Amino acid sequence: MKYDAILFDLDGTLTDSQEGILRSIQYALGKSGIVENEVDKLVPFIGPPLAESFREVYSMDPEQVEQTVAYYQEYFAVKGMYENTVYPGIEELLAELADRGKYLAVATSKPIFFSEKIIDHFSLTKYFQAIVGAHLEGKHSGKEEIIGTILSGIPHIPASRVVMVGDRKFDIHGAQAHGIDVIAAGYGYGADEELAAAGPTHIAGSITELRSLLLGY
What we know:
Layout: E1 5-8, E2 15-16, H1 18-31, H2 50-58, H3 62-78, E3 85-86, H4 90-99, E4 103-111, H5 112-121, E5 130-134, H6 143-152, E6 162-166, H7 169-177, E7 181-185, H8 192-198, E8 202-204, H9 207-215
Parallel strand pairs: 1-4, 1-6, 4-5, 6-7, 7-8
Antiparallel strand pairs: 2-3
Helix pairs in contact: 1-3, 2-3, 6-7
GO molecular function, one term: protein tyrosine kinase activity
Protein name: Phosphoglycolate phosphatase
């Protein structure tokens, strides 16, 4: 197996969190006076920092962004984070990688407060040596910075032996900034065109393909 350290994104890579995230966004927008009935329009919100998406898509000023993110967290903390499922085959893959002594970490733009709760809720915490996410107020939410934090904790593992697995261009670009390989999770929320344009090392269209890339069979 080529890789000694595998970094996983959370949403769209380890878990199918679309339902909870989209309901939380709809709730937040509604509280902010924006009615968004076309849920499909909100799918691109899954992955990048939430504040960034609210600012760019709805032209919100900093105060509006802060308040809308707070509304999002209001719903997500109670219901949204649990409207979520682990992709079939993921836990078995994590267990086998852990049994082989691989360093496993979660690198997510989701606030660490929620990320740890979700991972623990699904009894996946035992597989990871590190879980790194953003602060609740949105600081340190860029994927490049998050990946860098994890890499700084494993200086003994060469970059050539590290891989990032994620479903959006932000995961791919973040990994490329650090010179590590990246596997695009084509089964997640990133469009095929988005992933191909970002230039990942590999694209896994399914958990079975991801397993083959990571385990060699």
